[in-house]
Amino acid sequence: MAEENKKKVEEAMRAAQARPAQPPQGASLVERVNKAGCLMGFNQKDITTYLSGMRDRIAAVLPKHITPERIISMAATTIAKNPQIAKCSPGSLLGALMQTSILGFPPVDALGYCYFVPFNNRKVVNGVETKVPEVQFQIGYKGLIELARRSGKIKTVYAEVVREGDEFEVEFGLNPNLRHVPMLDAGKPMKYVYAVCHFTDGGYNFVVLSKSDVERLRLRSPMQKGAPSGAWLTDYDSMAKAKALKQLAKYMPLNIDQQEAIATDEAVLTPDNFQAGRAKIEDVEYADEVEAVEAAAEDTDEQDRQ
After folding, report:
1. How many whole angstroms separate alpha carbon 36 and alpha carbon 28?
2. I want to staple 248 with a disulfide (CB 3.0 to 4.6 A). Which of 102, 156, 201, 207 is the partner?
3. Is residue 272 part of a domain?
């Protein structure tokens, strides 16, 4: 019995440590959010009110065709739909939303243009290593295709997966050539992924990655140590295509704006990273050591934040 009570006490202590500390009653909304370090547990009205307090700061760095109200509305909706995002710092969420708006990408995972990935970023704060939940901005394969098309120098660009049983031939050298006749069986394992672009002047280029090449590129990300997780778990084919397209982008005639946009892939962005309607690449942060954010507890007491 004593051992059982001891376990219950330990579990309660762990739960208390996991829940952000609550500020005293009567504290302002900003004080309560700053104390919590995230927006988890706040109602949508309070979330919108808090983000609206950053309106002028957001407006100062957005291009004229994007209103800060749109960013604030998207942020509030995103937080409401994804409890893990709600656990992340508001600044990193706003940064990701600002970038996706500037690029004109819909922030919906299923559409494949971009992804918001919650993770614990290991940082040193006041001399102490701590885990800071933040949002990482990732560009999907459809987003990369859209950026390439905007150059005006690319006629078509696409990526495909080669599976076991497909007819596939590739030849490099003076006359590079690629031939793929698929079996159209999505249940077969992946063998290769390739990306192709045809230029408006009549030329073309392509890149081919083996499954092991894709895995090596995936594992370079500090968020992908071990088995696939996040978008790699739910949309492996799409993420593999994005890797092929990103390799091919090195040989595409992209302008500086498109190159800078691609450089924000897998970055942690905040409003401070933006100036004159674009992300300042020289100030962008890339996480070195990270781990996934645990799912928000089902029994979070929203009233604690009211």
Report:
1. 12
2. 207
3. no
- What is d(CA 205, CA 202) in angstroms, rounded to the nearest whole number? 11
pTM metric for this prediction: 0.71
Both 9 and 107 in one domain: the answer is yes
Handedness of CA 82, 86, 87, 92 (dihedral sign): positive
My answer on whether 128 and 158 are in the same domain is no
Q: Alpha-carbon distance 167 to 231, whole Å?
A: 28
Report how many domains make up the chain.
2
The H-assigned helical ranges of the chain are 2-18, 29-36, 44-52, 55-59, 68-81, 83-86, 90-103, 141-149, 211-219, 231-234, 236-249, 256-263
**Interatomic CA distance for residues 176 and 206, integer angstroms:** 9
